[in-house]
Each structure stands twice: as structure tokens, then as C-alpha cells.
Design goal:
The protein is an alpha+beta fold and about 130 residues long. The protein is built from 4 helices and 4 strands; from the N terminus they run αααββαββ. The protein is about 40% helix and about 20% strand.
Amino acid sequence: MKKFLFFSLIFSFFLSSCQYRKDQTQNITAPENDKKQSEAEINQNFKSKREEAIFKSKALYTIKKEEGVSFLNGPCLSNEIITDWVLDIAHNPRQDIDNKEENQCDAYRSKKAHHFVELDINGNLIRAQ
């Protein structure tokens, strides 16, 4: 009988402990993202439009990579990463496929944008001008 009571006590303690943990974890919410800043805060930290364009280009590259986008053709990732800047992916060293119109940013070719950030297929900066 003592063993039964002992095991019953241990078992009930175990169950109450599990319920307590469950209750505690249900109310935990992860922060949106501690590293996220408002666009206004981010824009204030840049010394130049070029620096801002590079930063945002690398961020977009990371997002597209996580989405599974293929960079092998050297696609245009954005016709306006910021005002007057496009984001183009190219090979380094440059390959013929990078010169095909379908792999270049329309906004830059049509002179709607006057600056570009060029990242290689691994997300490294080739040039920005």
C-alpha cells in the first residue's frame, strides 16, 4: 500500500509539473524580430544611397535565396531596390548569360534607373555605381 501511495504521489507530481510547463510555454510569444528596425531608422544609418542600396540588395538576396530562387541565369532581382537603383545578379567573372536582356533589369536598360548593384550568384558584391 505504501508503494502504491508513493507511486501515486510521484505520478501526480509528474502530471502537475507537465501541465505547469505546458501553461508556461503556451503564453510565450516570440518577438517579431529584435533585429528589425523601422525603415526610417535604417535609412538614417546610411552614409550614402550607394551604401543603402548595397545593404538592401544583400537583404533581398538572402530572402530570395531562402525562397529557393535560382541565381544561375544572373536574374534581375529588383527594378527598384531603392529609388533610382536596381539589383542585378551576375557571374564573377562575367559570362555571356549575364549579357542577355532577359537577365538584366528593365529599369536600368530603359534608363528609368541610373544606378545598379551587382551581386554575384553567391551574394557577394561585384560593383555598385
